[in-house]
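Section 5.1 Outputs to date
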Amino acid sequence: MQTSIFRNGQPLTAEERIEELKERLAELPKAGEHHIWEAFTLLEPLSTCRQDMRDRRYFREAMDTGAHLEALLFLLARSRPALELQHLSFSGTLWSCRVATSDNDHSVCGAGMHPDRCAAILLALVSASGGRGTRPYHA
């Protein structure tokens, strides 16, 4: 699948770009560094993290050293509202991940399943960032 911010000469909305990111991840055996960067630059709940120089520096250094898992866990904690890793397990061939806010009703949550651990976490983060009664996304 080709990455593009345009379709038929028209710019894609952020929601369309997020859906494309999820579709690409579902087709790939593992999440690449550029997928994590794309989520960082695209997801609205990470806007405060993007604007904070210390947060950007920490994220960039984690990515530069290949610490993708640490970078993703950092993004969960720095998203607004902050998300916590509620569940992460491996069964058979798939990683299953669930993230949610720490409040009692888990008002924001997301889930992802993927053969790659980082892709499962990234899908859960993207799912939780989708707004409007987020639904789990399964690869």
